[in-house]
Design a protein that fits this description.
Elements: H1 2-19, H2 21-28, E1 33-34, H3 44-65, H4 73-82, H5 87-114, H6 123-145, H7 150-162, H8 170-178, H9 185-217, E2 246-247, H10 248-273, H11 303-311, H12 315-335, H13 347-369
Length: 370
């Protein structure tokens, strides 16, 4: 053991002399201070990083056996589930993990909205996070088709059909998404390329930019407690310091680790005891372009959009409402310019916030049972 410790120290000294890694680690771990009242909601970023890492690892393992061809895709997925050692575990971790990621993303965005952490000077942090959320949904959508099951085939048909409601260019967008008039070989090829290369590359770049923004601007202080006072917007760049705060390592790192463990336990619980919670029976039938299954519906996180298209008299109007809502969310930091972040001092915002959540849940439940 002493020999190993000496070798490790020699290796670290070698790198440290050339790159100064001890200073980098100290600046970002033990000397990096966070607000003393930082709460559990701040850990969701680390949870998402862990879950995205797990998706990346399981996705690579699935690629070893998956065949992106309509005549073999479904069979290759069945082989992964039934013949490859622990293939079922890898596939369930990947499929269920995508749903857990959406849950964590929604909770992360809701906590940022509730605490007003999107406000100046964090507009770019919010925008990059908002784009990450939409990109994650895009990854879910493109990955949905890859098993080439009845569910994935017809859900993709319905999803791409919606773009056809856009006047003038709608049909061209549908053909572009599908690579032809119908969902087929070209669609699978395009979605596969986007899912395993295009979107993950953009996602990695966006995550890097998002983390840079968070680290560069500094962690926002939770707007709670008698000591909190809203800060007037600064006209020059200022990194938010937290004198007297807690170090990221080990104090805050332990909290991160606890919440990450909770989400991993939740993921493992669903995988081992209810793996079909997010996977309907039609996902186990091969795609048949000539037989439309009854009551085809999207994943739970798209139900609100699915039902919105049915509520309005035309699909175009439904798409316009969805686009307006998403644009409003993206531009919120530029519209809500007040420095006040305390929820108790923002009754109008909190009322709209609660009503928005209730409407989202109601429309989603309506879409599930409609």
């Amino acid at each position: 053991m002493p020999v190993i410790k000496k070798l490790v120290k020699t290796a670290i000294d070698f790198v440290d002399v050339r790159l100064g890694i001890r200073d980098i680690l100290a600046d970002n771990l033990t000397k990096y201070l966070l607000p003393r009242n930082v709460n559990i909601w701040y850990t969701l970023g680390a949870v998402l990083m862990t879950l995205f890492g797990l998706q990346f690892a399981t996705g690579i393992l699935l690629l070893i056996y998956y065949v992106p061809n309509p005549s073999e895709a479904f069979g290759s997925v069945q082989a992964i589930m039934n013949e490859v050692p622990f293939g079922w575990l890898i596939r369930y971790l990947h499929a269920v993990g995508s749903n857990v990621i959406v849950i964590a993303l929604l909770l992360h965005m809701l906590s940022v909205l509730f605490m007003g952490a999107y406000k100046r000077p964090r507009e770019l942090t919010w925008l990059s996070g908002f784009l990450l959320f939409n990109l994650a949904l895009g990854l879910c959508l493109t990955g949905y088709l890859l098993p080439w099951s009845q569910l994935s085939f017809w859900a993709t048909t319905v999803a791409t059909d919606a773009a056809g409601a856009i006047p003038v260019i709608g049909d061209e967008i549908v053909r572009f998404l599908r690579g032809g008039a119908m969902v087929g070989d070209s669609t699978l090829g395009r979605f596969f390329a986007l899912h395993v290369m295009g979107l993950p590359l953009i996602l990695a770049l966006l995550i890097g930019f998002h983390l840079f923004c968070v680290r560069r601007v500094g962690i926002s202080k939770p707007p709670f407690g008698p000591d909190y006072q809203p800060q007037p917007p600064s006209q020059v760049f200022r990194h938010q310091e937290h004198p007297g705060g807690i170090p990221f390592f080990p104090n805050y790192f332990v909290k991160d680790l606890a919440v990450i463990s909770f989400f991993l336990a939740l993921l493992a619980g669903v995988v081992f005891f209810a793996p079909n919670l997010f996977i309907p029976p039609s996902a186990y039938e091969p795609a048949d372009p000539f037989v439309t299954p009854p009551h085809i519906k999207p994943e739970w996180y798209f139900l609100w959009a699915y039902q919105t298209l049915k509520i309005f008299p035309s699909e175009f109007l439904g798409l316009a409402v969805q686009g307006a809502f998403m644009t409003f969310l993206a531009l919120l930091p530029f519209l809500d310019r007040g420095p006040e972040r305390r929820p108790a001092r923002r009754p109008l915002f909190v009322t709209c916030y609660i009503l928005g959540i209730l409407v989202f849940l109601a429309i989603s439940i309506w879409g599930h049972y409609s």
